[in-house]
Amino acid sequence: MNQVLVTLQNEIKLSRSRILKEINSISTADGSKKNDVESWNIQEVIEHLVLAERGGFNLIYTAAEKFRIGEPVWEGKSENDGLSMEEIIKRTWKPKEKAPPSATPNGKWTLGVWSAHFRNCDDLLKELNSILDGLPLNEVIYPHFLCGPLNVIQRLEFIRYHIDRHHLQIIEMKRTFKI
């Protein structure tokens, strides 16, 4: 098994466990508190993370399947080749980006429901092992809507970065609302 893949999976699991620990005792009512109508509440942040992570996995799976049959999603040199996720984000993101519709929360379910789905994203991580087995992870690429072409390693780094970024947001919301 690819050690880089295992390391990234473990980093994502650790990031996820930090958020789950942070939100474990938050009530549905507290998870729904907002600063203003434009801001997301904790429940919506978790919903967003689930939607975004599932979308990222879908893109990794698609890129791997297409690569395996000789029809790669992306061919050629990527402008992100050799860059860390932090470098890519610094180069491509504005201070406050807007999520794509596919990762924008709609508030339909409670914090408890989305927390369970977020926890279950670890199962998707395990599934990556078989689909990526034997593939060159730096050549399996699917473009991100803001960052441009990301290979599997970069996309997994993005998932970790994204979870950590929203973890800090949750900590701040808990402080603000004295949760």
List keywords for this structure.
Four Helix Bundle (Hemerythrin (Met), subunit A), 179 residues
Distance between the termini: 42 Å
- H-E string: HHHHHEEH
Average residue pLDDT: 95
Give the strand order, joined by hyphens, for the main sheet. 1-2
Low-confidence stretches: none
CATH class: Mainly Alpha
Approximate shape = globular
Binned strand content: under 5%
Number of strands: 2
What is Rg? 17 Å
The CATH architecture classification is Up-down Bundle
Largest sheet, in brief, is: 2 strands, antiparallel
Say which CATH homologous superfamily is assigned. dinb family like domain
Whole-number total of structural domains: 1
Structural class: mainly alpha
Under CATH, the topology can be stated as Four Helix Bundle (Hemerythrin (Met), subunit A)
Overall helicity = 55-70%
Structure notes:
The chain has six helices and two strands; from the N terminus they run H-H-H-H-H-E-E-H. With 179 residues, the protein is mainly alpha-helical. It has one domain (3-177): dinb family like domain (Four Helix Bundle (Hemerythrin (Met), subunit A), Up-down Bundle). It has a two-stranded antiparallel sheet. Helix 1 packs antiparallel against helix 5 (111-132) and helix 3 packs parallel to helix 5 (111-132). It is globular, with a radius of gyration of 17 Å. It starts with a helix and ends with a helix.
